[in-house]
Structure formats: C-alpha cells, structure tokens
Design brief:
Layout lengths: L2 E5 L2 E4 L4 E8 L7 E7 L6 E6 L6 E3 L7 E6 L4 E6 L8 E8 L17 E2 L3 E6 L1
Parallel strand pairs: 2-11
Antiparallel strand pairs: 1-3, 3-8, 4-5, 4-9, 5-6, 7-8, 9-10, 9-11
C-alpha cells in the first residue's frame, strides 16, 4: 500500500506562489497515476491536476491551466504542485491522491472516486 504525506501549504498573498509536495512511501509508487484535488469549506472535492506514471502526460482543470504545474520525481518518490498567480478562490485544503488501479470501471481520472489512496491534506490560504 502507498502512503501519501502532503506538505508546503500555508498563507500567501494573492499573486504569490506556493509549491506543494506529496511524499509517497510503500510499494510501486512509480506505477501510480497521481493527482491533486482540493476542497474548500462547504464545497465538493475538486480536481486540480493529474500526472501519468511516466510523468509524460499531464491534465489540468481549466481554472488552473497556465497557473499550476504538476510534476513528479521518481527518484524521490514525490509529486509536486507548483502554484503561481494564486487567487483568493484557490483557498482550500489540497489533497494528493494515487490511482493504484484498484477502482475499475468507466470513471474519469478527474473524479476523486478514481483514486484509492489519499493524503491527509495541506491547507492553502490566499489572502486578498
């Protein structure tokens, strides 16, 4: 089983940047599609970005395209989310997730239901 631990959240002013990290431990991390989601108070968990096991393919939610960059370092077993030009509406708890292939069926990779391993989340607060 893969365990995920996020870090790097904090308080930042609008227009600023943060880099989130997701450190994975356990077996076969390199075979997992990894993703970031976020959840603001009173809202559903929202897709942010995902990256293929090879790192060669990425996918972003429209509102994050061009501002956020997902990447992975297989040697460090870590996935990153670089967030630039942050806005107050980016305020949320950010979660790292892994798709280990446990969930099958016609579920999009943008759905949280696709992912079977989750981190505890890291708070990102953007002040105006």
């Amino acid at each position: 089983q893969v365990q995920l631990v996020e870090s790097g959240g904090g308080l930042v002013q609008a227009g600023g940047s943060l880099r989130l990290s997701c450190a994975a431990s356990g077996r076969t991390f390199n075979n997992y599609v990894m993703a970031w989601f976020r959840q603001a108070p009173g809202k559903e968990r929202e897709f942010v970005a995902r990256i293929s096991w090879s790192g060669g393919s990425t996918d972003y939610a429209d509102s994050m395209q061009g501002r956020f960059t997902i990447s992975r370092d297989k040697a460090k077993n870590t996935v990153y989310l670089q967030m630039n030009r942050l806005k107050p509406e980016d305020t949320a708890v950010y979660y790292c997730a892994a798709d280990g292939g446990v969930v099958t069926g016609p579920i999009t990779g943008r759905s949280p239901r696709k992912y079977d391993v989750w981190g505890q989340g890291t708070q990102v607060t953007v002040s105006s």
